[in-house]
Amino acid sequence: xxxxxxxxxxxxxxxxxxxxxxxxxxxxxxxxxxxxxxxxxxxxxxxxxxxxxxxxxxxxxxxxxxxxxxxxxxxxxxxxxxxx
Length: 84
Prior knowledge:
The protein is built from 5 helices and 2 strands, in the order H-E-H-H-H-H-E. It is mainly alpha-helical. It has a single domain, classed as 434 Repressor (Amino-terminal Domain).
């Protein structure tokens, strides 16, 4: 039996496209503070800040679900924007 190692295919932003996580903009539009969201979700303030500033290359789906629950939204398109 041959031992083969699976490798994950990695995409660059140019190949896959970029997505803007509009968290900060959404909060500002609805007069909600990042600190309130931190307290409502239990997600670290720094993590929320990094997510909202698009510092992170990925979004934890559990965090996304917690954020959507706290903001009482069911359409993730309110928070995500595909960039050309």
